[in-house]
Amino acid sequence: MKALSKLYPREGLWMTQAPVPEIGPEDVLIKINKTGICGTDIHIWNWDDWAAETVPVPMITGHEFAGEIVELGRNVTDLTIGQRCSGEGHLIGKTSRQSRAGKFHLDPGTRGIGVNEQGAFAQYLRLPAFNVVPLPDDIPDEIGAILDPLGNAVHTALSFDLIGEDVLITGAGPIGIMAAAVARHAGARHVVITDVNADRLALATKVADVVPVNVTEADLAETVSDLGMKQGFDVGLEMSGNQQALDQMVEAMTMGGRIAMLGIPPGKSPVDWSRIVFKAITIKGVYGREIFETWYKMIAMLQNGLDVSRVITHTFPVDAFEAGFAVMRSGKSGKVVLDWTI
Ligand code: NAD
Ligand code: ZN
C-alpha cells in the first residue's frame, strides 16, 4: 500500500510502499479515504527537537482520518464491514487506575498513532475496534478527517460552562477557530479571538461569528470596552502556545475567571503567578479528547447545526502531499485535507 512515512531522521516525509497491516483479534482494518494534516505532522516534517526525541524512524505519520472498515478481527462483533468511520488516535491501556475508572483520556500509558505507532497517512490503517468512531451518514469524510482537532476544540471549549459568558480565545489556528464556533454554538455572549496573523483572523470571521483582534496592531482592552463588557472575560481558551498570549489572557480575565489551556508552549516559560492568584483564576490543562464523551458531543453538535466546514481551506490528492504540507507550513491555511481516493 501507499504510505506517507518518516523514512529518515531529517526534514521531509516520503511516499513509500508498505505492507498492508495485519490485524489482531481485537482490531479492524480501515481503508483510508481522507486525512487531515495536523500541527503535529508539521513538527514531524520539520524534524524539530520534539519530533527527534519522540518519533522512531521509520514511521507512517498521520492521525486525523476518515475511512471505512474493510476487515474485522475475529473478536470484533459490534462493527460491520463497510461502516464509515473516524477514530480516536490515542491508544490506551485498560489497566491503569484512570482507565478502570472510565477516564480513558487520562491513561498515563497513552500512545499516539502516527507518533509512537504506525499512523493513518496510508491506504490502510490497523486500529483497535475500541478506538473506532462510526460516522453517521450526514457527516462527510472531509469532516470525519478533522474530528480529531475538532475534538481538541470541543474538549477545551466545553471545559467550563459557556452559556451567556464572555469568552477570549488566544490563537486563531484551526483549533482556535473551531473552538470559537463551538463557543458560539454553546451559547457564549461575546467570543473574541486574537492572533498576530491577519489571514488567520480573516478565516476566523468566515467560520464563526467572532470578534477578531490582531494584537500586533489593536488593543484588546479597547475591544472589551467597545463590546460594553463591564469586567474582563469569564472564560479563556488558550490555543496559541505563545507566552505573550497567555500573559495577555490573564490580564484580560475577570476575577474568578477560568482558563482552559490546550496550546503547548515550546519550553519552560515565565508566568506571573501572583496575577493568577490575586485574580483567583482557575487553569485547566487539556490533552486530547475525552474518550468518548467528546466524540459523542461533537457529532451531536455537528448534527445540530455546528458548522466548521469552512475551516478546511485546501484539499489535495495525496500524491500532491508536498503542496499540502507547503500550504500548511506557510501559515496561510486553515485545515488541509489529503484525499486518498483519487
Ligand atoms: P497553530 O499553530 O495553527 O495556531 C496557533 C496560532 O496562534 C497561530 O495562528 C499563531 O499565529 C497564533 N499566535 C502566535 N502568537 C500569538 C499571540 N501572541 N497571540 C495570539 N495568537 C498568537 O495551532 P493549532 O493546530 O490550531 O493548535 C493550537 C495549539 O494547540 C498549538 O499550540 C498546538 O500545539 C496545541 N495542541 C495541543 C493539543 C493537546 O492535546 N493539548 C492537541 C492539538 C494541538
Ligand atoms: Zn491532530
CATH architecture of the largest domain: Alpha-Beta Complex
Shape: globular
Global Rg: 20 Å
Q: Give the proportion of residues in helices.
A: 25-40%
At the first level of CATH, what is the class of the largest domain?
A: Alpha Beta
Bound molecules: nicotinamide-adenine-dinucleotide, zinc ion
Termini distance?
14 Å
CATH topology of the largest domain: Quinone Oxidoreductase, Chain A, domain 1
* DSSP helical segment count: 12
Which ranges are low-confidence, i.e. pLDDT below 50, for 5 or more consecutive residues? none
H/E series, N to C? EEEHHEEEEHEEEHHEHEHEHEHEHEHEHE
Strand content: 25-35%
Name given to the CATH homologous superfamily of the largest domain: Medium-chain alcohol dehydrogenases, catalytic domain
Number of domains: 2
Structural class: alpha/beta
How would a crystallographer describe the biggest sheet?
A: 7 strands, mixed
Q: Could you tell me the number of beta strands? A: 18
Average pLDDT over all residues: 97
Briefly, what is this?
The chain has helices at 39-46, 49-54, 97-100, 141-144, 147-157, 174-185, 198-207, 220-226, 243-252, 273-278, 293-302, 321-329, and strands at residues 2-6, 14-17, 27-37, 59-60, 64-72, 84-87, 90-91, 111-112, 124-128, 132-134, 167-170, 191-195, 211-214, 233-238, 253-261, 282-285, 312-317, 335-339. It is α/β, with parallel strands linked by helices.
